[in-house]
Amino acid sequence: MQDFTLLFLHLSLLIIGSTASPVSQFSPSQQPSHRSFMPNFRWMYQQASAPSYNSYVSDSHVPNLYNSESQTSNFYTFQTQPSNSYASPFEQSRHSFYDLPSASHFLSDSEDIVDVSVDDIHTTNTTMNHCNCACGQVDRKQRIVGGNVTKLHEFPWIAALSKKGRFYCGATLIAKRHVLTAAHCVEGVNPKDIKVTLGEHDRLSKNESVPVIIRKVKRTIPHPDFSLSNFNNDIAVLELESGVDFEAPQIHPACLPEDNDANYIGKNGIVAGWGRLDERKPTSATLRKVEVPILSEEECKNVGYSAQRITKNMMCAGYPEGKRDSCQGDSGGPMQILSPRPGKMEVIGIVSWGRGCARPNYPGVYTRVGNYLNWIHAQLGDDCTCNL
Known about the structure:
6-stranded antiparallel beta barrel; protease; mainly beta; serine protease; about 25% strand
């Protein structure tokens, strides 16, 4: 009888194992041959809807797998490349690992991306509604020495998005009732679950020198041609339930580019956010920034990414040796440059995706905001952007 009971239990366990959830955990030795993952890193397997590939979503609890020097000094991600090297590293959005939407997945180099031209996706000529208010103001007294920010609220247009109380993405204030972010930050997310925090510097501090402003989201407007299968058109506008007073000293809107044909090649873009200090560390409590050189489309297509991965709606920025980059949690946040207009900055990119963080030959990839100016203004309704 005892032997029969043991046999029955053994068979039951086999049956349970064979009918388990399609979300399964892989050990490094079990990982598929076409992709190698980090040692001891927990992964969940998710069957993708398309039959040509499988997608992988990182688990929300990420262990610290290696020691990597990260010199922060109030500057965003001075990351030294770890000594570990991995073949075929993964690609991912710069969404916080703490709260990835279940639909997110990572792309393989074998996937084809249909590059839709700018003219094809932005055919509507929209009258741009401007207000007589100031945007993108830079504090002329501010000094940045060796990349170290010496003043709070340097970028008063940066917002933090939280879902059910948990920070997960960045955004940019562009009008009194609208912020700009990445489409993958809001895809499949109920607007009622999102809150936008403005005037934030230290997310964990309860004693900010100036009170933050929190707004609920009325609706999310991801670009209609965005798809998680390729991250092309990774841009969204969020309408707030109530407007923001620009008289607040720590909150001002960003300037959008005046020219969608502007050439940024060789210029240094400044990316800011509360993202991870490296791939395996938690998101940052304080707002940080990094300055990275902007590459040409040709340069971007000749780095580690396959050429078909990069579309005309994307731009790359980073160093050949890695060194500095945006990281998970920075998604949706701005890349900005000094504007041709004196004393101002303008937002030219949105943190979108990349392969790991600060890896040699894999620069960060950003949504090119200038390609969407008509579309952005079409979503604002009677709201207006500042032009002073």
